[in-house]
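Hey all, quick one. A colleague (J.T.) asked me to put the phenylalanine job into the tracker so the inputs and the structure tokens live in one place instead of scattered across chat threads. No bug as far as I know, just bookkeeping. Sequence used:
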Amino acid sequence: MNIDTTVESALAEIAAADTEATLRDLEVGLLGKKGTITELTRLIGAAPPAERGPIGKAINVAKATVTQALEARKVALVQGAIARELADTTFDVSVPGARPDLGSFHPLTLVQERLEDIFTAMGFMVLDYGEVETDFMNFEALNIPKHHPARDMQDTFWTKDGHVLRTHTSPGQIRAMKQFAPPFRAAFPGKVFRNEALDASHEHTFHQLEGLFVDRVVSVAGLISTMKIMLSQVFEREVTVRLRPGYFPFVEPGFELDMQCLLCGGAGCRVCKHSGWVETLGCGLVHPNVLRHAGLDPAEWQAWAFGMGLSRLVMMRYGIDDIRHVLGGDLRFLQQFA
Ligand code: PHE
């Protein structure tokens, strides 16, 4: 074993290593437990005591030299790899990027949020009640007893255990009156379900917004002016409304409120079925039986309520003349609202 020649050949091998993997193996072969450089320490034991010190020093120098050479070669190999990668790859910074498709709110959501803002500004709470209801909340408490012909006005989906998918948002009236002490105002938007044959103007699932105003004294005048203000704010222009008597068991008197068609200005078109008017909502003074079912004394408290479908409003607001566009889920249609 000779220190100088061992170091010399180690340096030559290091210089020849052309990958990081080769270099790692080489490092083990030189400096590992049984590595060539490590083994040099055996020279110390074999030498006469007087020479051991200088030999030890020489071995340390040899180790340091080899370690440094390994380190330098490693850096050179890594730098070389990076340089090659850069030389092989070209980036065209002028190529336009891929534009990701962005989601957007559905027009129904836009109109619902707008209504929520309008009612919040008028001092209404916005409440959210469940879609599965009891027979009591959806019918009984709303003055629609079993076998009442009014049950046929709204074809109902029943669950196996006798619950209903709410056919309107009106059960929220009972829930709100049980939940909050009067006087209060509340609006509850949500999905409702009716077991109807699908056609151009009927869906089994649609969106309503219900409103309830409870106070010591309320009036039809207050109800109608609130409806007119609400519609004028939704459409950002003066809206003309008209009132017809309407039958709903849970209000007395009850009304159907129509608004003049905004698409044709009342001249007649597809959306208003050529009448110039669009049925917009049902409303009225809450029936004393309903107040009683909700735990309020009709001698002390009065209320008005309304319930309104949202798809008709969406059509008016965005000038859509076919309801199937509103619920069809066609992306080309929906992207217009992005
Ligand atoms: N619940 C009725 C419907 O779905 C609408 C309505 C609500 C009518 C409140 C009067 C008062 O048709």
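Adding what we noticed when we looked at it: The chain has two domains: 3-87, 107-337. The radius of gyration is 41 Å.
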